[in-house]
């Protein structure tokens, strides 16, 4: 918890603070931002774990609200020094309509920006995504690229489209005059695939493996690298950016940063096995067990089934043409921009990230 001997003067707002990443950001702020006086957590669904945070030296204010409602956002932002906007609809499985994804991710972000401008909040950090860049619809590889690597970022799927639009809004808002006459300072963080405690898809794979008698079947070639980053390090980057944005506004304002750490470069499935292996699962096959064309067919079939069944039930399997394309296209980053601009070093080593994640998967065992 924060050291109360230091001056506690700052008010932070974390939107989406009860999500997978948001919870880590919230806990990290309470542990590592000693200047915090009040931490506001704004989310559509508030978690019961928030109660335990309310006994510490920092005032924790839980706000149940919707980013698509401008007045709710403005009320939450008023008086905050820093906004970390991590709320978003992460849906690549067709659970929600494209319109809703746009409304939450794009209009919601616009509401956050306008709230900062209207109420005089100067510092805004946006959780963007690697998906803003790629993989693109052409399936071109992005191999150990950085923030300046040329890449044709063309999307059709509602999720990456919405993240790209929202990121642009945030970056374009840098320098806008906020109430009181000072400029807004914004930047965007682009995590690759986040893993760690609370990662729902990891849990889904684990339970799928248990149902299949402790086995998972390789579908993606081991040579396809997929960028992954530990949730604790992503949270730490948010905390650092929030701290440094004021002092390095000229350098950091309007910038994007990939989120990275020392997690190894592996395929999506091989990487998951770093955690699921020690929990008793086995990945069968050194090569994909099915030909790629069959996977493409199954993915297309899933889309058709989703559409046919929609009037009756929500059918949203992990495999669809989009998730297959993302999993099957190399996308990894290699950059030190965050270190150069704001002194970021990963807080958690790969070994620690791995240990923590394995421990969490094990405790998640009974919660199928
Ligand atoms: N999970 C991943 O691998 C990656 C996630 N991201 C981004 O990180 C952010 C957080 O993602 P996760 O923690 O994985 O997702 P999550 O779904 O666990 O968390 C999102 C949070 O936003 C809240 N939320 C959704 N709609 C809302 C609304 N209308 N008003 C207020 N709150 C709302 C949800 O209730 C949830 O608590 C998102 O912006 C996502 O695009 C970026 C890269 C990778
Ligand atoms: C083909 C299947 C065989 O086992 C595997 C399917 C895995 C997919 C569900 C995931 C593979 C890559 C993931 C995405 C990636 O990590 C980047 C992301 C960034 C975000 O901002 C949101 C989540 C996601 C789109 C993530 C979603 C799940 C995958 C597509």
UniProtKB/TrEMBL annotation:
<dbReference type="Pfam" id="PF01073">
    <property type="entry name" value="3Beta_HSD"/>
</dbReference>
<keyword id="KW-0560">Oxidoreductase</keyword>
<comment type="pathway">
    <text>Steroid biosynthesis.</text>
</comment>
<dbReference type="GO" id="GO:0047016">
    <property type="term" value="F:cholest-5-ene-3-beta,7-alpha-diol 3-beta-dehydrogenase activity"/>
</dbReference>
<comment type="similarity">
    <text>Belongs to the 3-beta-HSD family.</text>
</comment>
<keyword id="KW-0755">Steroidogenesis</keyword>
<keyword id="KW-0472">Membrane</keyword>
<keyword id="KW-0520">NAD</keyword>
<keyword id="KW-0812">Transmembrane</keyword>
<feature type="domain" description="3-beta hydroxysteroid dehydrogenase/isomerase">
    <location>
        <begin position="13"/>
        <end position="283"/>
    </location>
</feature>
<dbReference type="InterPro" id="IPR050425">
    <property type="entry name" value="NAD(P)_dehydrat-like"/>
</dbReference>
<keyword id="KW-1133">Transmembrane helix</keyword>
<comment type="pathway">
    <text>Lipid metabolism; steroid biosynthesis.</text>
</comment>
<keyword id="KW-0256">Endoplasmic reticulum</keyword>
<dbReference type="InterPro" id="IPR002225">
    <property type="entry name" value="3Beta_OHSteriod_DH/Estase"/>
</dbReference>
<keyword id="KW-0443">Lipid metabolism</keyword>
<comment type="function">
    <text>The 3-beta-HSD enzymatic system plays a crucial role in the biosynthesis of all classes of hormonal steroids. HSD VII is active against four 7-alpha-hydroxylated sterols. Does not metabolize several different C(19/21) steroids as substrates. Involved in bile acid synthesis. Plays a key role in cell positioning and movement in lymphoid tissues by mediating degradation of 7-alpha,25-dihydroxycholesterol (7-alpha,25-OHC): 7-alpha,25-OHC acts as a ligand for the G protein-coupled receptor GPR183/EBI2, a chemotactic receptor for a number of lymphoid cells.</text>
</comment>
<dbReference type="InterPro" id="IPR036291">
    <property type="entry name" value="NAD(P)-bd_dom_sf"/>
</dbReference>
<dbReference type="GO" id="GO:0005789">
    <property type="term" value="C:endoplasmic reticulum membrane"/>
</dbReference>
<dbReference type="GO" id="GO:0006694">
    <property type="term" value="P:steroid biosynthetic process"/>
</dbReference>
<protein>
    <recommendedName>
        <fullName>3 beta-hydroxysteroid dehydrogenase type 7</fullName>
        <ecNumber>1.1.1.181</ecNumber>
    </recommendedName>
</protein>
């Amino acid at each position: 918890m924060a050291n109360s001997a230091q001056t506690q003067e700052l008010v932070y707002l974390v939107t989406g603070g009860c999500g997978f990443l948001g919870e880590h950001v919230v806990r990290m702020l309470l542990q590592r931002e000693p200047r915090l006086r009040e931490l506001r957590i704004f989310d559509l669904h508030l978690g019961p774990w928030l109660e335990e945070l309310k006994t510490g030296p920092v005032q924790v204010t839980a706000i149940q609200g919707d980013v698509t409602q401008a007045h709710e956002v403005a009320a939450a932002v008023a008086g905050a020094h820093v906004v970390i906007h991590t709320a978003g609809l992460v849906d690549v499985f067709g659970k929600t309509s494209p319109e809703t994804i746009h409304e939450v991710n794009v209009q919601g972000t616009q509401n956050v920006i306008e709230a900062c401008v209207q109420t005089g909040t100067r510092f805004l950090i946006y959780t963007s995504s690697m998906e803003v860049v790629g993989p693109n619809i052409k399936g071109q590889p992005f191999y150990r690229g950085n923030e300046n690597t040329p890449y044709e970022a063309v999307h059709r799927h509602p999720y990456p489209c919405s993240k790209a639009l929202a990121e642009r809004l945030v970056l374009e808002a840098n320098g806008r005059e906020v109430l009181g006459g000072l400029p807004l300072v914004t930047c965007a963080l682009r995590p690759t695939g986040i893993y760690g405690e609370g990662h729902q898809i990891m849990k889904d794979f684990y339970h799928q493996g248990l149902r299949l008698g402790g086995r998972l079947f390789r579908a993606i070639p081991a040579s396809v690298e997929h960028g992954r980053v530990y949730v604790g390090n992503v949270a730490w980057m948010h905390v650092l950016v929030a701290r440094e944005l004021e002092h390095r506004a000229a350098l950091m304002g309007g910038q994007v940063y990939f989120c990275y750490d020392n997690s190894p470069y592996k395929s999506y499935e091989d990487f998951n096995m770093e955690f699921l292996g020690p929990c008793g699962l086995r990945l069968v096959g050194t090569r994909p067990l099915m030909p790629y064309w069959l996977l493409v067919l199954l993915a297309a079939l899933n889309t058709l089934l989703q559409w046919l069944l929609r009037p009756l039930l929500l059918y949203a399997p992990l495999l669809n043409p989009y998730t297959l394309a993302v999993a099957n296209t190399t996308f990894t980053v290699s950059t030190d921009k965050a270190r150069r601009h704001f002194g970021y070093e990963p807080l958690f080593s790969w070994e620690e990230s791995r240990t923590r994640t394995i421990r969490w998967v094990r405790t998640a065992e009974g919660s199928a």
